Amino acid sequence: MDSAEFHAAVYHVVRQIPPQKVTSYGHVAKLIGMPRHSRHVGQALKWLSPDAAPPVPWQRVVASNGTISSRGPGTDGAQRQRDALAAEGVDVAVSRGGELRVDFGVWGWFPEPGTVDTGVRREPAEGDDELEGEVDEA
DNA sequence: TTATTGACTGGCG
DNA sequence: ACGCCAGCCAATA
């Protein structure tokens, strides 16, 4: 899988996160079959253009402990993520230290790998004709 | 070529 | 709860 496919897989999976649900970078990495690429999931979302169509609900991906990474003092990314989540009804708690976090027990979405469509089926082969309907069975 | 850098994770104290 | 560290691996410098 090259970089473009990795991006595509990340976007495809992230787009399947239901509204009012959140998951972690690490879990997205697992879902696309690359469990050690959690950081690159973040990169893929970082590089995502805001006017992508269809939109990618990047706000539904947070760190494995449920917190939203600050991305540095001078940035507002975490704030925008909180706003985006709040806008769709997700309760984002704010700790005393100003740390943003969501309760995975309530909002978590962690399906088993293989139960979601990664958008990457198999290597295209000669005469590999396929009905477009059978992308998933679960 | 090697070194550093992450929208990270998991373990240990 | 919090901090520190090792592992991780593509992109950058």
Automatic annotation (TrEMBL):
Signal peptide (from-to): none
A molecular function GO annotation: catalytic activity
Annotated spans, Disordered: 112-138
This protein's UniProt keywords: DNA damage
Taxonomy, superkingdom: Eukaryota
Residue stretches making up the Methylated-DNA-[protein]-cysteine S-methyltransferase DNA binding domain: 5-90
Annotated InterPro entries: ATL_DNA_repair (IPR052520), MethylDNA_cys_MeTrfase_DNA-bd (IPR014048), MethylDNA_cys_MeTrfase_DNAb (IPR036217), WH-like_DNA-bd_sf (IPR036388)
Protein name: Methylated-DNA-[protein]-cysteine S-methyltransferase DNA binding domain-containing protein
Residue ranges, compositional bias (Acidic residues): 126-138
Organism expressing this protein natively: Phlebiopsis gigantea (strain 11061_1 CR5-6) (White-rot fungus)
A Pfam cross-reference name: DNA_binding_1
Record-level GO BP terms: DNA repair
